[in-house]
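Blinded run. Sample ID left blank on purpose so nobody reads anything into the name before looking at the predicted structure. Input follows.
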Amino acid sequence: MPSKPPETHELQEMYTTYVKTRYQRLRERQQEHIDLYEQSAEIGLDTTNFQKPTFPPTGMRIIEAPADNIAMDFISVNQPPQLRSPGGMETKGTRDKADKVGRWCQVLIDAHRKREPYFLREIIKNLAYRGEAYLFLNVNPAFVANPEQAEGLPVYWEVPDAISVYSSLDMENSIPRDVFINKIITVGYLKEIAERWKGKNNYSLQLEGKKDSDLIYLVEWWFPEWRGYFSADATTYQLLGIVPLQGEEIQPNPLGFVPILRGFSGRGMWPHDGDPARIAVGMLTGIERILIQEARNRTKIDTITSKYALPYPKATMAPGKRLPTEIKLPAGTILEESDQAVVKWEIINPPPVPPDILQEQQEIDRILSD
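Blinded prediction complete.
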């Protein structure tokens, strides 16, 4: 635990290690899952010969289904007493304490549900989609400015997208030892923040060559003893400067701990080598190629049925002969030359979908339904 504020180069080194090294494999896998969820993945078919990719909603359904089972209209807190009597029996004191904690937690949840109705749903989706989820405890700024006149609760919860959070696997009671949270903002908004806290042109940010509309990261970081913000390039992750917080570049952490809880999906194993990709395992992990194969088969079927949905004509004519210009050829007409006929018309029935594709699709459906 550092007794003095971290230097800028120390923040840069720690942040870069997380982003470019420790989390690299996990982020690559999560990006693959984004492509499947948003139906934008490459499926390996030439679009000049096939229809645009046909993605069934399988990947999205797998992520959304667990969250769909969460009812947000009423959430009840049940805090069991902590048994501390010599015989392990529940006492009036332990019941009263549990009731007090339960009522306070119920107030927090009810108040937050009004502010952010679907925060539990977002937690479940993060666990299914990213393989991990965070619950961030934030301070109501009204209580900081004027606690006597402030309304509402002094704290509230946020559920950040886990793909934007970098933290240590060193945890106590699900609280990591440090955390970096990326927030994408514009350069113009960053200048407004810095000027509000430090005064116009009194801040030190390396923004040369950047337009106000460019996107960058505002990174919020927490250690047990210190907290602060810095800006970073959204592509290179290079620090662009410390962002002043209420006039100060780095402030002591008044809580004495990092105010974020971290949970995992339960599908991975604790990493023996410190790689978070082993423990943050989402529900699409392991079936990525199956989903690609499903989209590829659906695209083949769509191509066959859309190009050959109806019977189509075939005209056979002698070499050098041309059809009269007044004959309008429907789409899909096949023209062939032959020494045997001047003009011969045939109606060709559309080809069936190859049985191998249908059989393969049935096997994919069986695997995904298990």
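Unblinding after everyone has recorded impressions. The mean pLDDT is 84.
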